[in-house]
Amino acid sequence: MKIYHNPRCSKSRQTLEIIQQKTKDIEIVDYLTNVPTAIELTKLVRLLKIKPEGLVRKGEDIFKEKYKGKILSDEQWINAMIENPKLIERPIVINGNKAVIGRPPEKVLELF
Please, which of 1, 7, 76, 89 could form a disulfide with 72 given CB 3.0 to 4.6 Å? Predict the structure, then answer.
């Protein structure tokens, strides 16, 4: 399993705790310091079965300041998340060819 994790986020910490109760075989990626590439983000949205815009945290100040009300292409949303990783919804958990956003944290149980 792999989790795109923000240690300062309570939902992300709760999701990680649920995973660690089930398995020790987990890769933890602090996506704010190890920003996913365009290829990784494209894979994530494909696994999540959403458009890139669906992975954007619209409550973030950076979204409100730079992107609110704008229509961007999928590629532009991917680039926006790379430039501003705080925009990436969290936590994202992958197990094989399945992925979920851990909101609520119990959603991760779908991957077991």
Answer: 76
